[in-house]
Amino acid sequence: MNIQNLLLYYVKMTAGELVNPPKLPSQVLFESRLSHELYVKSHEDYHPGEHINRKNNILGACVPEDHTFGVGTSSIYGVAELLRTCKSSSEKKDLMVCLEHINKLRQLLKNKNPPFEFDAFLKALQYFDQENIRWIPIDVVQKTCQFFELSLHKEKLETIMKQIGIMRCDGCVEYKKFCELLNWRYEFPDIGKIVDIPPEKQYYNTTYNVFARNQQCDGSDNLDVHPSNTCNCVLYPIKENEAVNVSEADIKTLISPSIFSQYGVTPEDFFKPRDKETIYNIFTHIGVKLPDDLFESIWNEAYQCDESGGVCVETFRNILDKLVAEHAKTE
After folding, report:
1. ∠ CA(316), CA(317), CA(321), 5° rounding?
2. Which of 170, 127, 173 minimizes the C-alpha distance to 148?
3. Among 75, 87, 204, 273, which residue's Cβ finds the most Cβ atoms within 10 Å?
4. Which residues are paired to 174 by β-bridges?
5. Which of 234, 326, 312 is CA-nearest to residue 273?
6. pLDDT under 70 in the chain at which residues?
């Protein structure tokens, strides 16, 4: 039909026929479906309730599956990896994935409607145990699960069963405990301790111990290896009844440690017997310079007080403070 005949066709039609042509409803619906995609593209004319196709599949090949809006939704580095200096065990990660699979299956069977027949499932497995040894091959277990419409991941299931000890090396499964593993009414079996850090990488220490060890020099017991003649800090005394083990320190000591703790000096160090040269170096390094005769007098008196074959820092300091106080009264 040429354009002229087409115009004549529409001229002969009435307005009513032009607006509402004499067509069957099926023909109108068919023509509407043919031209619907064109109207969607030109006018965004979607049917009521029709899903809007935004044509975002173009970027599907560029964006990885574990990304959302350009941001990764999964990472190989979690809290455990950030707190450790060595790689975590891949065995533990695989086991966590297997546990997730079993837990989802237990939850699915719990919410199943109608309820899953665990008794019938157990009897079906027991049928293959003709010798009554409580063990049947894993292939029989898999086929029985398929018959009862249980979708199980074979590798993940075997990993869990080996971990809890209900699957032997020959591939046989203790079917009664296997039913209890799937049954949400039973507690989940103990999977035991998983060592996710190699023994040679296990090194437990605290920040305080590391700091204190760095302040010491090759394990020497002498305090004179840390000169502090440039330090003008006031050293608060530690009384003998306050000499406690560092591991038994109270909260106040941990929150606000003294200057001695900051330099790795424990209360026991003040009451440890030392020789004359060590005592002389300690007090010289903190700025206490005594004449030789005065130092010798204090040393002799402190030596008689301690009666331990040496003199501790606390005894020497107490005698020195007493002499200073007596000298202050005479002035």
Report:
1. 120
2. 127
3. 273
4. 135
5. 312
6. 1-13, 18, 55-78, 80-81, 84-88, 198, 203-250, 331
Residue with tokens 């068919």: 30
Query: What are the CA-CA distances from residue 74 to residues 64, 77, 78, 89, 147 (Å)?
Result: 11, 9, 9, 18, 36
pLDDT tens-digit readout, 73-116: 566 566 766 776 666 677 777 888 888 889 998 999 899 888 88
Burial bucket for residue 161 (CB in 10 Å: 0-12, 13-18, 19+) = buried
DSSP E strand boundaries for 146-247: 172-174
234: DSSP letter:
-
Cβ pair 280, 248 in contact under 8 A: no
pLDDT the model gives residue 208: 66
Number of residues written out for the chain: 331
Take residue 106 and report the two structure tokens written for it: 């237990």
Residue that the structure tokens 């002389």 belong to = 280
